[in-house]
Write a structure and sequence with these properties.
Helices cover 33% and strands 17% of the residues. With 1462 residues, it is of the alpha/beta class. Strands 34-33-45-44-42-41-38-37 form an 8-stranded parallel β-sheet. It has a 7-stranded antiparallel β-sheet with strand order 9-2-10-1-15-14-16, with helices on one face.
Length: 1462
């Protein structure tokens, strides 16, 4: 183009600049907009490495690496455009000979120069400035640029359109030592140093003079240069800068990596080490710099504790002011450690790189510190190793989450798994001393006779290749080498304090009461007086009769948290007309799709509550005194543990008590309120500021090591601050002031008594909680003969197990990592509250601020200390009880919470359904919609009818078509009765909708069509028409449990992968033993009478590519079925949904937090998940932003009742609607909330034969209701000028907030602008054509035409058609052949039924390495014999087939000593 421009040189330069600007920045993650937040982005991947342990560089290492990454293409992902990948990279040992032949300049001797690939801007002027900056920073750190290859030879033609649009200018820059090795610190003027000087004002940062760099190793200098560039030049990204390794990466598909970088294609480019990585991102946005490997690690997994790790490393920066390995350098100029790339792996790499450069540690030791194995409960672990890990825990918390981490510094290569072993890592060792490690086997072809060993990484274990020694060092030898390097046990004995060893004798009850009350008690103890004394305080801190009876009492009596059922149907805290504690504005986060929850029961051995607390020391200079910390065995302190902490002052841990109250006069004074209103100040904020100042003074002046936030002064004349606000504000303030690592924070809280409260306090920064008032409240538990100390211990045991359960929802094993990780989401809290107290926490719907929270505390005060005269004569003060606000059960009194399900509404709904009455339905809908106004997000919105012209209703799509978009939710057979389950299936099949089996399996008898006649169902008789069916079209799958067989899967129109459940996301189901009887036990393949406590749904789904694999497995097992994935609404669900769609899901269900029939712990039902409105809107927006919306059908569910709800859901992005509770109500449910007790009085949710006889539901009742709902929806569509459902999907411009919200102070500031942002207006680097449909219209390509099963079908034709025996003697198989057996099994089941064929009718002998899910759903009569090895998920849902795997006959290793499957 430039050649065609005939103009002056200046105009030519302008033309060139214009062309360069067409290239966008290489990181095109969009800005935050609508509900989309780029910080929620996740990724997963395939990792591999191939090396010669003797350091013999060869071309074969690179060609094998190329094969490896290409054969793991399925572990990465394509973007919205098929030619764009999510990112691929390779890190190789330094190819010195190749560089010498390629560089037009002379290089210093090998290992005396460093080299790196740099991503630079395409704009010439900006790029030239960046190059000058790089050279200048190199000089400042004693290095010089000896030459460069600019631009690096690449082939841009292989790139997809997104990658081309963001392609950086890539330069390869070489650096070597200067002669003088002196840096003038006065020259260093980058922004990081300026920030450090301003923040610290330390002498060190202001001194002028020279800093000696001559003695620093070249690798250290290169690290310092790279850090300086990263903090100074945001336009530059350094892929790596080292004298030992070099990194080539970018926005590619795996087969594009070696085609793009011409260096890698060159026959003269050789290496002895290559580490590869293929990325699977949850988005479709180009991001060259997020591709792996990074400089030291390649990471497959997710760091669940990232926010806590980030806060902790930020706080530790104040202590890392000096390191011997960096000479006299002032390290503040290199902070913050976090370079804000937006990736968890990038931050981990930053930390590993810093700790390695800081000296005193090898790379393997660094990895052992950040990703330790489970040592706390490992009684058989070597004492030296336990001591090592315990010592290291004093320096850093675990970076917890599923992980396969490969790491190298060129001197060592290693790999490790997380403590749970939640990622695959398989390896070969060859006879010529090569090591081949990858996420799966078969990625590199190795002759069988050359394989000397096959193994896998195990949970928490590590392998290391030391290139100097030329061998692989196994885990025990390696770790004992580091564990015995120093006397860690002696360090711990001399310096650490174990609080458990300091406990005094258990006190008598009188003494215990005195300590809890903090006052003397006259003997004998009068418990009535004590209860009367604490009653106002209990009311003050929102203890209610209902919570004490339903939550606290079972924990005391039975030692575990109680179960509930039928979901959550009361208002969000930001919508409630009653005062609410700040605790109630938060919901627990949970894992789904991108990482797994773990099982706190079956995986208890890897979980731990043990934590070191108290002052930390310099992370870069470990010393014996580094473990001078306090080890707490439990976070919920009893009185003895609290006393033991108080007594540590004599051991050098001074304490300071900070009062969490303020005078009542401050809150009641009109003058003070007016003054604050004028100045814009807040009473709570003022007190929080005071507490933070007091804390800072206590640390800096008094040397306090323990801060105790206390409610002790709360009373009639002093208002308490909520402990969560105080903890959050103090924790954030101390991090910002870089003082958090100087102290422990303990909360002496009166307002904490629920599991959710404890988790919040720990999650936002508390080290321990002493709930003294909660312990006193246990005196009120009725029907319990335990003494108070026993009650307290039972309560603590239940609470602390439930804390583990909450941690496990996010896949977190260690409380040390959970603390401060902020794994919650806030809804309806004001931005000012979030920024002041919970910075970094996920939040949505800006709303309630400090003033409303202060007003709520005044209302609690008025409830506790009402202004009243003497009580009437018949009222006895001794029997005064706690208030009951109906938070769990409906109460028909004025001052109680509103519920979605009220008796009058239920009655009207049933009347409308039974009589098919339009009048009754309209009355029901009016009442229900009024309740929705006070309880749900959608109730705060209205239709923008003024902006459109109405149309006649006759022009609107008929109800008979709309009801086909309805389905019943996943309610399992077992949670409800067989009669109710069949009624829903029969009704949905008649209207053309779908019913869902839930995760309880389905009786095969239901697969057959029915004949005309009648059917008895409890007390009801159903009329059956010819061709009716009680088969559920949707079959749900949850980790292959509960009757999931080849037959079950083959009889589905839709297969739904349950990744989470609305009632209990992140948890498994609980079906009591008294419900596991008869047909239920048979259908679930379970033992009658034995309770079923499931692991979390798909807790064996380690990451997003595993979800993609299960989608492929199910599609192969039933090629005709639509594959659905069920997710639960949470902040960040949009990026998760995008990843699932990239994994080839056809359908997504976004379930709301309101739950359903499933039994779960009350803390999960009440405090987990978000309303579907938020999850659905975010999902729709993010899919549109990614250019993926037209590939998937969106569905939502959660307390959907009326036509208004239906249209609201469609406007927010749904094409289909699922309903569970409402259909059950039409069939007779009266919301007793006793589903888990098996005592349902109307036969809907019980397995009791006598109670089932009371079932009176008719399928026609449900059909009537669905058509009434559809007709209401049609009326609304007509008023909006909408003719078809496809025209209304995602049209948020037809919604607006209701004007009267401003009349309610609590809702006045709720901001719905993000929720209602039209998806088509969102901006990203991906061009979505105008007019692109906002609904599904492009089927997914599941790529079934080329799978191996298609060939097997041909070879097995005789068996499939005539039942003849077929033997395939030699069938080659590779790791890319996945889900083998699924299609063949499906054909067998469809023709021959669940019994399949006689044994060995189809016998196939495979040779090679099978891909994932070998023998997927293998049916009876099929035998798969594999000579070779198999990858993960072998034999998934094996359904009667036979799988045989054995080692190759030519392999020299012993079968008993090697691993060949799994």
């Amino acid at each position: 183009k430039l050649a065609e421009i005939r103009c002056s040189p200046s105009r030519l330069r302008l033309a060139r600049m214009a062309m360069e600007k067409e290239k966008q920045h290489w990181d095109m993650i969009p800005k935050r907009q609508g509900l989309y937040d780029p910080s929620n982005e996740k990724d997963a991947c395939g990792v591999g490495a191939v090396m010669d342990m003797k350091q013999n560089a060869s071309r074969k290492i690179l060609t094998d690496a190329c094969d490896m990454v290409v054969r793991m293409t399925h572990r990465g992902a394509k973007q919205a455009n098929e030619n764009d990948g999510d990112g691929v990279g390779i890190l190789i040992s330094m190819p010195d000979d190749f560089f010498r032949s390629s560089c037009p300049f002379e290089l210093p001797p090998a290992s005396e120069y460093g080299v790196g690939n740099f991503f630079l801007p395409q704009q010439t002027d900006v790029r030239e400035d960046c190059i000058k900056l790089i050279a200048r920073l190199a000089r400042k750190f004693g290095l010089t640029v000896v030459g460069s290859r600019m631009p690096l030879p690449v082939n841009s033609k292989v790139l997809g359109p997104y990658a081309q649009a963001t392609e950086p200018y890539i330069a390869q820059i070489f650096m070597a030592e200067q002669d003088d090795g002196v840096m003038m610190e006065s020259e260093v003027s980058d922004a990081a140093t300026k920030r450090a000087k301003t923040a610290r004002k330390s002498k060190r940062s202001q001194e002028k003079g020279s800093v000696s760099l001559g003695n620093l190793p070249l690798e250290t200098k290169l690290f310092l240069v790279r850090r300086a560039i990263a903090l100074r030049a945001r336009q530059v990204f350094v892929c790596s800068l080292s004298s030992r390794t070099i990194n080539y990466k970018g926005q590619f598909k795996p087969d594009q990596l070696f085609e793009y970088y011409l260096d890698l294609k060159s026959p003269t480019c050789t290496a002895y080490l290559a580490v590869v990585h293929s990325r699977f991102s949850t988005n479709s946005f180009p991001s060259w710099n997020r591709a792996h490997p990074f400089r030291r690690i390649a990471h497959n997994g997710e760091i669940n504790t990232l926010e806590g790790n980030r806060n902790q490393i930020k706080a530790r920066e104040a202590l890392m002011h000096h390191a011997e390995s960096f000479g006299d350098l002032n390290l503040e100029m290199f902070f913050p450690v976090d370079e804000d790339i937006g990736s968890d792996s990038a931050l981990l790499d930053n930390v590993v790189e810093l700790l390695l450069a800081g000296g005193n540690r090898d790379l393997a030791e660094v990895i052992m510190m950040v990703i330790p194995e489970a040592w706390q409960n490992a009684e058989n672990m070597e004492p030296e190793k336990r001591a090592f890990y315990k010592y290291q825990s004093c320096l850093m918390e675990p970076w917890d989450g599923p992980a396969l981490v490969a790491f190298t510094d060129g001197l060592q290569f290693g790999a490790t798994l997380d403590r749970n072993g939640l990622r695959p890592g398989r390896f070969y060792i060859t006879t010529d001393q090569r090591l081949i490690l990858a996420s799966e086997v078969g990625v590199v072809d190795v002759p069988d006779e050359q394989v000397s060993y096959k193994g896998r990484l195990r949970p928490g274990k590590m392998l290391l290749v030391d290139f100097k020694e030329g061998r692989m060092i196994e885990d025990t030898e390696l770790k004992m080498r580091y564990a015995t390097a120093r006397p860690y046990a002696e360090y711990l004995a001399d310096h650490s304090i174990d609080i458990k060893a300091r406990l005094a004798e258990a006190p008598e009850e009188t003494r215990l009461l005195e300590d809890l009350l903090d006052e003397d008690i006259a003997a004998p103890v009068d418990y009535k007086v004590i209860q009367h004394r604490i009653l106002p305080l209990l009311k003050y801190f929102n203890y209610t009769y209902e919570k004490m009876e339903m939550l606290v009492a079972p924990m005391v009596k039975e030692g575990h948290e109680p179960l509930g059922s039928m979901g959550q149907d009361m208002p969000l805290a930001c919508l409630s007309r009653l005062p609410r504690m700040p605790f109630d504005y938060f919901s627990q986060l949970f894992a789904q799709a991108t990482n797994p929850p773990i099982d706190p029961i079956r995986e208890a051995n890897v979980m731990s509550l043990v934590c070191p607390i108290g002052p930390e020391r310099n992370l870069l200079e470990p010393a014996p005194e580094s473990c001078r910390r306090i080890f707490l065995d439990e976070p919920i302190l009893c009185q003895r543990r609290f006393n033991a902490v108080l007594e540590l002052e004599a051991d050098g841990f001074p304490r300071a008590v900070l009062d969490m109250t303020y005078p009542l006069t401050e809150g009641n004074s009109r003058a003070r309120r007016a003054d604050r209103a004028i100045s814009g100040r807040s009473l709570i904020k003022e007190r929080l500021d005071q507490i933070c100042k007091e804390a800072e003074a206590a640390i800096s002046v008094d040397g306090a090591a323990i801060l105790i936030l206390s409610h002790r002064r709360a009373g009639e004349d002093r208002i308490p601050l909520n402990s969560l606000l105080a903890v959050g504000a103090l924790h954030q303030h101390l991090i910002a002031a870089k003082l958090r690592t100087h102290v422990a924070i303990i909360v002496e809280a009166a307002d904490a008594y629920e599991v959710h409260h404890f988790c919040l306090l720990l999650g936002f920064g508390a080290d321990a909680v002493f709930p003294y008032l909660c312990y006193l409240s246990l005196l009120r538990i009725r029907g319990c003969d335990y003494p108070l100390d026993k009650r307290i211990e039972n309560f603590r045991h239940a609470a602390q197990f439930s804390i583990l359960k909450v941690m496990s929802k996010m896949g977190i094993s260690c409380l040390q990592s959970y603390k401060g990780a902020q794994l919650f989401q806030a809804i309806g809290l004001g931005k000012d509250v979030i920024e002041r107290c919970f910075a970094g926490c996920k939040w949505v719907l800006n709303g309630v601020g400090f003033d409303i929270l202060a007003q709520d505390m005044l209302e609690f005060h008025n409830q506790a200390y009402p202004a009243r005269g003497p009580l009437p004569p018949l009222v006895d003060v001794d029997v005064e009880e706690l208030d009951d606000f109906g938070e769990y059960h409906f109460r028909s009194i004025a001052d109680s919470e509103i519920h979605m399900n009220t008796p009058d509404v239920i009655y009207k709904m049933q009347e409308a359904a039974r009589e098919n009455s339009t009048e009754a339905y309209k009355l029901f809908a009016e009442w229900q919609n009024k309740i929705t106004e006070q309880t749900e997000i959608r109730g705060q919105l209205e239709f923008n009818v003024d902006a459109v012209d109405a149309i006649p209703i006759e022009e609107v799509e008929p109800a008979s078509e709309i009801v086909k978009r309805f389905c019943t939710g996943a309610v399992s057979f077992g949670s409800i009765s067989d009669e109710a389950h069949r009624a829903m299936a029969l009704a949905m099949n008649r209207v053309g909708g779908k019913s869902n089996t839930g995760e309880g399996g389905e009786d095969p008898m239901r697969f057959k069509p029915l004949h005309e006649g009648t059917m008895e169902a409890g007390a009801a008789t159903w009329e059956i028409f010819e061709g009716d069916s009680v088969r559920s079209k949707i079959k749900q799958v949850a980790s292959g449990r509960f009757g999931v067989t080849a037959e079950y899967v083959a009889n589905a129109d839709e297969l739904q992968i349950k990744l989470a459940q609305g009632a209990k996301p992140g948890e498994g189901g609980e079906l009591p033993g008294y419900k596991v009887i008869g047909a239920i036990a048979t259908t679930r393949n379970a033992t009658p009478g034995v309770g079923l406590i499931s692991p979390p749904p798909h807790h064996d789904m380690y990451s997003i590519e595993d979800v993609a694999q299960l989608i492929m497995d199910l599609k192969n097992a039933n090629t005709a079925a639509r594959i659905s994935v069920k997710l639960v609404a949470r902040i960040g669900i949009g990026v998760i949904a995008s990843g699932v769609v990239k994994g080839k899901a056809d359908h997504l269900t976004i379930s709301g937090m309101s739950g359903g029939t499933g039994a779960a712990k009350w803390s999960s039902i009440k405090h987990c998940g978000l309303p579907w409105e938020i999850g659905l809107a975010e999902t729709h927006q993010t899919l549109v932003l990614n250019g993926l919306r037209d590939r998937v059908t969106l569905q939502t569910d959660g307390q959907v009742r009326t036509g208004r709800d239906i249209v609201m859901a469609m406007l927010l992005g749904a094409e289909e609607i699922a309903m569970s509770t409402a259909p059950l109500i039409t069939l007779g449910c009266i919301m007793m909330r006793k589903c888990h007790l098996n005592t349902c009085p109307v036969g809907v949710a019980t397995q009791d034969p006598e109670l089932r006889k009371k079932f009176t539901g008719q399928p026609q009742h449900l059909i009537n209701y669905l058509f009434l709902v559809a007709e209401e929806a049609r009326e609304i569509m007509a008023s909006l000028g909408i003719r078809k459902v496809t025209e209304i999907i995602g049209r948020t411009d037809l919604l607006r907030p209701k004007a009267h919200l401003k009349d309610n102070p609590k809702m006045a500031d709720l901001d719905f602008s993000d929720l209602l942002k039209p998806a088509w207006t969102m901006e990203s680097g991906i061009s979505v054509a105008k007019g692109t449909p906002l609904y599904c219209c492009m089927p997914q390509d599941h790529e079934l035409a080329h799978v191996l099963d298609q060939k097997l079908l041909t070879k097995a034709t005789a068996a499939l058609e005539d039942g003849e025996k077929v033997l395939v003697p030699k069938q080659p198989i590779k790791n890319v052949d996945r889900s083998v057996g699924g299609i063949v099994s499906c054909e067998v089941i469809r023709k021959y039924g669940p019994k399949g064929l006689p044994d060995n009718t189809i016998h196939i002998k495979f040779q090679g390495s099978s891909g994932q899910s070998f023998g997927n759903f293998l049916a009876p009569g099929i035998t798969f014999e594999l000579e070779g090895d198999a990858n993960d998920y072998i034999g998934k849902a094996l359904s009667g087939g036979i799988i045989v795997v054995y080692k190759p006959s030519k392999s020299p290793f012993k079968s008993s000593e090697a691993l060949i499957a799994g």
